[in-house]
Amino acid sequence: MAALAYNLGKREINHYFSVRSAKLLALVAVLLLAACHLASRRYRGNDSCEYLLSSGRFLGEKVWQPHSCMMHKYKISEAKNCLVDKHIAFIGDSRIRQLFYSFVKIINPQFKEEGNKHENIPFEDKIASVKVDFLWHPEVNGSMKQCIKVWTEDSVAKPHVIVAGAATWSIKIHNGSNEALSQYKMNITSIAPLLEKLAKTSDVYWVLQDPVYEDLLSENRKMITNEKIDAYNEAAVSILNSSTRNSKSNVKMFSVSKLIAQETIMESLDGLHLPESSRETSAMILMNVYCNKILKPVDGSCCQPRPPLTLMQKLAACFFTLSIVGYLIFYIIHRNAHRKNKPCTDLESGEEKKNIINTPVSPLEILLQSFCKLGLIMAYFYMCDRANLFMKENKFYTHSTFFIPIIYILVLGVFYNENTKETKVLNREQTDEWKGWMQLVILIYHISGASTFLPVYMHVRVLVAAYLFQTGYGHFSYFWIKGDFGIHRVCQVLFRLNFLVVVLCIVMDQPYQFYYFVPLVTVWFMVIYVTLALWPQIIQKKANGNCFWHFGLLLKLAFLLLCICFLAYSQGAFEKIFSLWPLSKCFELKGNVYEWWFRWRLDRYTYSIWASSCKNKAECNELHPSVSVVQILAFILIRNIPGCARSVYSTFFAWFGKISLELFICQYHIWLAADTRGILVLIPGNPMLNIIVSTFIFVCVAHEISQITNDLTQIIIPKDNSSLLKRLACIAAFFCGLLILSSIQDKSRH
């Protein structure tokens, strides 16, 4: 009864909600979300720097998340590279001095907080030619005005960045009197035009006063209340923002430190000065505001303009636009023809007469329709990860964000199950199921940022290796049983594996090696094919007739193993081979092939294992390939030894397994963001709803791309050898054109 109820319920759901209707719903959601984000940016502005300087929240205890964009954590070398030949000046009181120290420590962590605190403090890195000064001016008065006025003179070298702010000393010295606030307003009014003049050539930031923790304040600071601080901040914002009558002020308000202080001021030692972690966050925000537009870090989307379109991206846009127009014209013509041939009614008998029989869909229509849909999907990819239309956020790992979704999918996977069509070891349903649950775990691993947790990292390495094992096992079994070494089979597999990645390399302006998993499975497929296709070709039918052929196969595999070992332990030889043009165009990342060597070497034996004895990633990765087959074989045995387990499979996991390749690739840009460094935010302010909606759209897109790829494979890779050779010549010409365009782009960038 339970099984009958389940089948009836599933049939009822499928009747009202199919994959097609899900995709239409996803399309409507994308259009509505795009419209909402466009309207929001038009209303609130499109400057992510303003969000970085004014809003955000803490993820956990110490990770700051700006509103709508990602913040990069700058290393020493990056900071020096950005600030070379630059002069930064901090002007203000003890709180500004704290910010100065935290900023300098990004450049030089050994810099000590020592010396007389109530005086100017210089810092200079002569090698990097970076100069950072703190100028002690604890009050907004004539002294501060004179310091700023000197910089406005044409003959004086101006700092590239000026960070100023003060108020607590005025409150303290004048015992919080209203007269002091009035004087503060007058003084800042006289300074505002000077700051505005400087802001035309330099980056000028006015730091608003952070709140205090009144319970911890000493007796001589009790007059510094949050009410007084708010009054001084309101005065500064009002005056500085109104210093230009007809345009927006160029002086930027650094108000985000107030939000940071509200969360952390309780950890202050004296109630006035922020704890070190909070100061470091504010200093890193300053670094992002200035350096992101210079260095353009992938995971630092704040303050970065949209990257200009490359030549290949423009050509791709033209191609997809023509495909959409072509399909619409074809559809209109076809529809009009269909109307003309519509069954007509005989006036005498009242019966319908059929003029023609419906003709099958032509390959041209399928081709145009596929490229039309693909063009719309690529537009969504571009909007998500290049056009700055949707928001991005940094990842933040907690055990709950990884393990709770794992439990959810495990329950769903167990609930949705059916009997297999066959009970042999590693049958098709079982391998789809295996791929499906592994892919879902990998997706959760990526979006939760679980790579920072070493045990999870190593377990996921096993899953990636198991996926490669399945790929190798499947191709080996096909060639071993079928003996089909024809070019049609090879081209089908290569097209199926690489089509989406090639399109993304063009549309998203990424190197082929960026999508590292596809090069891995492609190379291992070719390794298996070449090994078995070379003379003597040994297949199951031949080997069953004479056991001598089994020995010959073992020799082949032993020689392959020897070659793998040589390349794995000879990095120089490996890099020389893959640095040769045009291979270098496929396997280089950031100007070298090290990443490709690392990925290939990591899973070279088909492929990895949980190395429980290792202490860090480097040690784990060394142990990882050597005994990998143990866990993979253990899982196969556990899954297949009981007959009841072999005869049942999870339809939930198997469904995802059939589109696992598309899921793995698509996540880079339309589920994650900033080329996997962050998370795509379609619905801000509600992380749970955002994950649900973005996941729904992401899965629908992956499924549609899988269907498009299958349709195009049938058309572009025909079974007829003469037609196939012509198509291959066209594909070769296409890739030659890509290489030429890529070389032109590289030269223009340099």
TrEMBL record:
Q: Which residues cross the membrane?
A: 311-333, 366-384, 396-416, 437-458, 493-510, 516-535, 547-569, 653-673, 679-703, 724-744
EC annotation?
A: 2.3.1.45
At the top level, the lineage of the source is: Eukaryota
Q: Which PANTHER family match?
A: N-ACETYLNEURAMINATE 9-O-ACETYLTRANSFERASE
State if Glycoprotein is listed as a keyword: yes
The answer to keyword Transferase applying to this record is yes
User: Which intervals hold domain NXPE C-terminal?
Assistant: 64-119
Write out the entry's keywords from A to Z.
Acyltransferase, Glycoprotein, Golgi apparatus, Membrane, Transferase, Transmembrane, Transmembrane helix
Specify the enzyme's EC class, one word. transferase
Q: Which InterPro entries match?
A: Cas1_AcylTrans_dom, Cyclin-like_sf, NXPE4_C
A GO term from the CC aspect: Golgi membrane
Catalysed reaction(s)? Answer: CMP-N-acetyl-beta-neuraminate + acetyl-CoA = CMP-N-acetyl-7-O-acetyl-beta-neuraminate + CoA; a ganglioside GD3 (d18:1(4E)) + acetyl-CoA = a ganglioside Ac-O-7-GD3(d18:1(4E)) + CoA; CMP-N-acetyl-beta-neuraminate + acetyl-CoA = CMP-N-acetyl-9-O-acetyl-beta-neuraminate + CoA
Q: Which family does it belong to?
A: Belongs to the PC-esterase family. CASD1 subfamily.
Q: Which Pfam families does the UniProt record give?
A: Cas1_AcylT, NXPE4_C
Question: What is the protein's name according to its record?
Answer: N-acetylneuraminate (7)9-O-acetyltransferase
Q: What organism is recorded for this protein?
A: Equus asinus (Donkey)
Biological process according to GO:
carbohydrate metabolic process
Q: Extract one GO molecular function annotation from the record.
A: N-acetylneuraminate 9-O-acetyltransferase activity
According to its UniProt record, where is this protein mainly located? Golgi
Q: Where is the Cas1p 10 TM acyl transferase domain?
A: 296-606
Q: How does it sit in the membrane?
A: Multi-pass membrane protein
Q: Which residues form the signal peptide?
A: none
